[in-house]
Structure formats: structure tokens, C-alpha cells
Amino acid sequence: MTDNSNSAIAFIGLGNMGGPMAGNLAAAGHQVHGFDVGAEALATAREAGIDTFDSVPAAVEGAGIVITMLPNGALVDSVVTEALTVAKPGTLFIDCSTISVEDATDVHDKVTAAGSAFIDAPVSGGVTGAAAGGLAFMVGGDADDISRAAPLFDVMGRAVTHCGPVGAGQAAKLCNNMVLAIQQLAIGEAMVLGEKLGLSAESFHSVVSNSTGSCWALTTNCPVPGPVPTSPANDGFRPGFATALMVKDLGLAMGALDATGAAAPLGRTAAEKFREFADAGNAHLDFSAIIDTLRTDPVRR
């Protein structure tokens, strides 16, 4: 297979996550061709040193690596289909979106049938991690293809785990985000209990973040203002990870539970709670804002 690793990188999807990721690649000296449907995202990308284009094929033409960061599997499939019309044989496709395992394997089959390579590489770390180059990549695919991508992962992230064949990265991401949803609810419940017991947010954070309850949902995404000044709670819950995206990811996890028959009562409860929260008009807020519902839910005895 042709090695196009020294060619330009096409980055499709320059939103809250993709924009900073692509910007970090450009800042590291890579030639980055970018495309997004949003004019504001394109303008921000240009300021970050990314060469922007007016279509997927225009961005992909001449690139040796294509990275996608998109909202759902249907869009990934559509973009990859467009990209394959101009991609050179041997192009490496890296999908950093969160999609179903089945969608990832379907796209892989389409790419390899066209003579190129595909790995799924969803991320954890949110907008803060994307901006800081501190993402964790969970990757599915062939070891040689992952080795080609490794220098780019080093720029965009702090950790890379080869989880198995194509689709395994998505499997790991769905499991991780189900854990995250449960933890964010648990932290919210405990912080509200602490409030009612007269415990300050600062004291709660200091104790729990240094004890057995420590987790990202508290140490980075603390759902009340003050203890972690960079958390979304200090900015009106402007999303690092929007509730709508958490609902989507939990939906994928619920589909996987149904397909495998695995039991996850806490995961199913989290999916229900976040769906209700989104449907109540909060889909645009950071998912940690769900703490507000825990202050107002009626007590069940």
C-alpha cells in the first residue's frame, strides 16, 4: 500500500473538538486542509493556520491522511464516501467521531475496498483536552495503520490505547462515556446532599478529589462554580461536552446493551435522566448542568 504519510492532512469537522485538534496539528508544522459546513468554524480555523476549502473533495485532494470529527455515523459515512472520490490509494482515514461499532466497521469496509486504510479513534477529554492537546485516544484497527497515525496522536493527545480491531475503539468509548454519565450524576447527587448538610462546595471538592470518590466529573467538570474555575459551571454551563452529545452516546450504549444482552441498570438510569434533561430544553448545556434537576426533583421515600 502506498505511504502518503508525508502529504497534507485533511481534517473534516472543525467544531468545538475538531477545530482545536486541527489547530494543534497546524501549530506543530503539519499542512492541514480543513472543511466544515459552518462559516464561523472555517474562519476560526484560518486564524489557527489551517488552509480551508469549500468542499470535502477539495480538502481531501492531495492529502495522505483524512481525519473526521463529526456528530454521527451517517455523516461519517457520507463524508468518507465523498472523500473516496478523490483520495489517493493508500490514504489513511482516521475517524475520531463517536459512532456505533457497526457504523465504524461499515466505513472500514468501504475504505479498504477502495484501496485505502481506516482506523476508528474516538477521544476522551472534552473541549479542554482538545485545546490543550491532552486527549485520550482509544483506537481500533491494524497496528501498522495505527503506527502511521501515532505522530499525529502525539500532537493531539496524551494517551493512546490500541483496543483491538476496527470498532474496538468505539466499543471502549461507549463504555467510557456510560461510566462518565453515571459519575456525573453521582457527583451531582453527592454535592447536592453536601449543600443540604451545610458543606461548602470547596470543602466537598477538597475532600472527595483527594479521596476514593475522585473522578473527572469532579476534578475537571465540577458542576458548581468555584472549586474548578475552568469547569463549565463557571461559564453558565457553556458546553465542554453538550448534553445532546451525551444523550447520543448513551443511545449508542443502550443499543449495544440491547444487542449484547448485558445488564446495566445504572447506565440505563443515566440514559433516561439525560434524555429527560435534554428534552426539557437543556440539550445545548454542558451535561454537568443536570445537577440543577437534582436540586428540584421531588424526594421519593
Structural class: alpha/beta
Distance N terminus to C terminus? 64 Å
- Tally the beta strands: 9
What general outline do the C-alpha atoms trace?
globular
**Which whole number gives the mean pLDDT?**
95
| Radius of gyration based on Cα positions | 20 Å
What proportion strand? Answer: 5-15%
Q: Which series of helices and strands comes N to C?
A: EHEHEHEHEHEEHEHEHHHHHH
> In order across it, which strands form the biggest sheet?
3-2-1-4-5-6
What proportion of the residues is helical, as a percent range?
A: 40-55%
Quickly count the helices: 13
Main beta sheet:
6 strands, parallel
Please mark out the parts with pLDDT under 50 across 5 or more consecutive residues, or reply none. 1-5
Question: How is this structure best described in words?
Answer:
Pathway: Amino-acid degradation; L-valine degradation. By secondary structure, this protein is of the alpha/beta class. The chain is built from 13 helices and nine strands. The chain has helices at 18-27, 39-47, 56-60, 73-84, 101-113, 126-132, 143-156, 168-196, 201-208, 216-219, 243-260, 265-282, 291-296; strands at residues 8-12, 32-35, 51-52, 63-68, 92-95, 117-120, 123-124, 135-140, 157-164. The strands form two sheets. It has a six-stranded parallel beta sheet, sandwiched between helices. Strand 2, helix 2 (39-47) and strand 3 (51-52) form a beta-alpha-beta unit. It is globular and about 65 Å long. The relative contact order is 0.10.
